[in-house]
Amino acid sequence: MHDFGYRLDRIRGSHAYFIHSKYPNICVPKHEPIKVAYIKSIIQVLKAQEETR
Question: Domain range spanning residue 29?
Fold first, then answer.
């Protein structure tokens, strides 16, 4: 489905899709079109932040 290894799940009764991964606090509002490249860029930024610690 998505090639970046992160599952997008819609939480029941919620208006957002949450990325269930090491970063469960990332969510994309349901009314926004979910762009894989956008999510990939968020994950890349988070990984870079982890590496610089």
Answer: 7-52
| 16: β partners | 29
From residue 1, give the alpha-carbon distance in Å to each of 9, 29, 47, 53.
Answer: 12, 19, 22, 32
pLDDT under 50 in the chain at which residues? 1-6, 11, 13-16, 18, 20
Tell me if 26 is assigned to some domain.
Answer: yes
User: What is the Cα–Cα distance from 14 to 44, expressed in whole angstroms?
Assistant: 26
Whole-angstrom distance, CA of residue 36 vs CA of residue 23:
16
Determine contact, residues 32/52, Cβ cutoff 8 Å: no
Q: Distance between CA 28 and CA 51 in Å, rounded? A: 24
Q: Is residue 41 classed as helix, strand or coil in its secondary structure? A: helix
